[in-house]
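Morning, I've got a small favour to ask if you have a moment. It would help a lot if you went through both lines with me. I owe you a coffee for this, so here goes:
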Amino acid sequence: MYMRPPPQPLLRDRSSQRYARTRSSLAPPCSAQERALVAICATCSRAPALQRVPDARSSRRPQRALACLFPAVIRAMATCVWLRRCGARLIRLAFSDRGLCPRAVCWAPGRAPLRAYARGPGGLPTALLRTDSFVGGRWLPAAAVFPVLDPASGAELGRVADCGAAEARAAVGAAYDAFCSWRSVSAKERSSLLRKWYDLMIRNKDDLAKIITAESGKPLMEAQGEILYSAHFLEWFSEEARRTYGDIIYTPARDKRALVLKQPVGVAVVITPWNFPSAMITRKVGAALAAGCTVVVKPAEDTPFSALALAELANQAGIPPGVYNVVPCSQKKARDVGEALCTDPLVSKISFTGSTATGKILLHHAANSVKRVSMELGGHAPFIVFNSANVDHAVAGAMASKFRNSGQTCVCSNRFLVQRGIHDSFVKKFAEAINTNLHVGNGFEERTTQGPLINEKAVEKVEKHVSDALSKGATVVTGGKRHQLGKNFFEPTLLSNVTQDMLCSREETFGPLAPVIKFNTEEEAVAIANATDVGLADPAQIWRVAEQLEVGMVGVNEGLISSVECPFGGVKQSGLGREGSKYGIDEYLELKYVCFGGL
């Protein structure tokens, strides 16, 4: 926040030839007034230091230069006093065409700066809004900032520190220093701290949900559900922290015993997407901290406020400095920051959720130093409806599976495979449900079920898939175009007569588009479902089909399958490893074999 300085300085001093602005340390002042002025500037951690000027007998040039400079210094000091009285905690002094210009960087005592923040329609909570990076337990600004936009209105929500490769490496260094002590913290204490973090999330769940809705556009009800889902990962892994058991193995030799220990891998880099800006962090970070690892989080450039709000709560919970670090950055710097994080020799583990293309780049970086990786990448989930299905139940499952977060989840059904005997009935009832139950609008409006897409690029991809399908013979049953509310809104769309050569049948749309493909036999359905390079899914039928599907997850008569207690992950090019469940913590643990002889 920038404020106009008072018209008159509060303090004056006639000894203007005694001090000059330099970058060296403070020299002892000569008078009570001078000591007061120096003390004032010393309270500003970035204020210019002052040094005694050589005596007049030794040099006259410094005196003449000082005579011009000192009045500006006095005015700057006086302004510092005024700003400090108003609550400014950190004050920067800089030269301009008007001389020294003090600027208040932090308005509320103990708070991080809130740069140009405009309140959203839900009355966002300033107590959790942070704009700087969080490294080593401190809020640190960057040399540049980038804007975060409300996808519903396009309005600027605020400006966040735009960290670069140097800041990323500094965060890794802080995490590594913290790891040396965090790994030795008892499992019980780590469990207790994670539980405190969980409690704070629950206490602030409404405020956290508003932040998600503001920066991602997600309907508020869905955002509230995400916060509970997100917090439960901290609760779950607070309990799993005490269950990282090893083994004792009896060997053939009578005088030997073999032990298997589980130990934390080290510093973990966590790179998360915008569609679940809170849950994707806690699902990874909860497991990492429970195992004894420290983390550096790089959130998506579209949704950094959620990650920074979690940092604020982690700090309040007593998570030690350097254990949880956040380095936000713009899309322009994302490649350099990602490379710096993934190639740093102090990093032992990389966990990423995002596109398959980006995941392959990160895998390449990790391969050079053979780092542990977890990859949760793109999906192309089929939703299979057989003739034996109850149509009403199938439609209800399709609605839940397809249109959550406006179709912007990696496990949203991307293709609807419907057997010929039930096809027409399913399409008719599916269209009726879409037109009756879905309401497009701002995420803060109570009746909204479909918010905006994250940005215009996402809308353009949906448009491209619809246009391609129509050019190849598909039919629009409902929707099919941008919504009148704004450039980031798209109508929930249902297509019929879709074939496998269309883009929507071969690529993940990541939007509110439901293409229906007609099939005849079970074998044909399995072949269509498996004809993809990715394998995140939730189809519905029987064990035989479930076992034949080449996917990491299967939902049988169920459209929503995510749960903190169950392993989440895919096969093929959908990724590596599992998150959540009792298996999730293993991604952050190394096995060590110890052989005791001479017993």
Summary: The chain has a mean pLDDT of 78. Residues 343 and 365 are 6 Å apart (CA to CA). The two ends are 70 Å apart (CA to CA).
